[in-house]
Amino acid sequence: MATPSLYDILSTPYGGRGAFAREAIPQGTMILACAAPYAHVVYWEFRREVCAWCFAYSFESGKSKWAVKLAGSEHVGGNGGVWFCTDVCRADYIREHEKMLAGNSKRTTAGLAVPPAGLVYLETIVPTDITPEYLDVAWAAARDVSDQRRGWTEEMTEFEVDTARFVLDGLLRKIIEEANPGAEMLDRLVDDTPGYCVGAGRWADYMELQDNEYALMYTNPHMLASHIRVYRFLRHITTMLPQVRSKLNEKSVHVIEQLRKNLATPTDTRALLGRDSGNVFGLWDTATDEGSEMLGWGAFVFGSYFNHHCEPNLKKKRNKRGVEFYASKDIAPGEELCISYADGVSVEERMQQLESGWFFVCRCTRCARDLERASGTPSI
Q1: Residue 39 has what pLDDT?
Q2: Per DSSP, which regions of 235-304 are E strands?
Q3: To pair with 278 at 20 to 30 A between CA atoms, which of 28, 163, 217, 270?
Q4: Please, are residues 176 and 188 in contact by the beta-carbon 8 Å criterion?
Q5: What is the per-residue pLDDT for 290?
């Protein structure tokens, strides 16, 4: 690993954990560089426009789409596949995945989560009283129903397809780790730059993030049926894939078998989805999140410990596949390191986003000041 961290992860006075400066940090210092997300997804609609490796957006280069494609990644209809901005990115992508798919010219994982058309929903009940016990019962029922059903008779929304692809990415990474317990992940970053430089992390690191499943379901109960549909769809996919076993090499078959074993219960899917909410970062069409398009999202595990502040002291910048965090002002020893989760919107929109997306009501001095200005009434 690189130079020692400039901060400690400690309990915060308001609950949970946060990052606190060990020493005075000058403005402009790089605090953390995350080389890659643990799991990520590029929105289905942007799959041809966003490089699957470095997340470069084709329109920023004056192109409508990328032309470099992963061989063998087509599926029915020719609308799937994985695209890259250069042959170099394609080679890096293959190198990252070759531990589990080496030599496979029929790479099918990229287009697995394709929704069947013209089908109807089955899970339509939205519970009115969510409890942790209710969630456990619902997920147990999802497992039992998945054990009994043979076909797939439900329609997936585009967001559910993207969510399924995010979960699949995380599960595949976990399988790589289990098959290579002593190996470094290829996207690990080692650097002598001041600050703390890390790779994507491992499953244990992802599990250290706060599980927001109950908070999400309590405020958005309709999401329970959506998450269960995602799990059951992935169960269906891994049940169906052995039918094309003859097109896959031995390592690919092994991966599918590991996925089937993993998805025999919803435990890991539930863990990925529970930590997705409130912890992931958007992948935007500009490096500093100031663009108009969000292209997908990724779990940059170690960056998730930076909590929100409406007047932050950190600025986030995407660097190709990674994310870097810099001090936007001088930081004193012991000061909490924070980024902004909701920039460039009105105070009412900001507070609504924080409450619905991160499950807290912001009561900072900036929000009080902005509310006073918006209402014309002095705050008490």
Answers
A1: 94
A2: 281-284, 294-298
A3: 28
A4: no
A5: 58
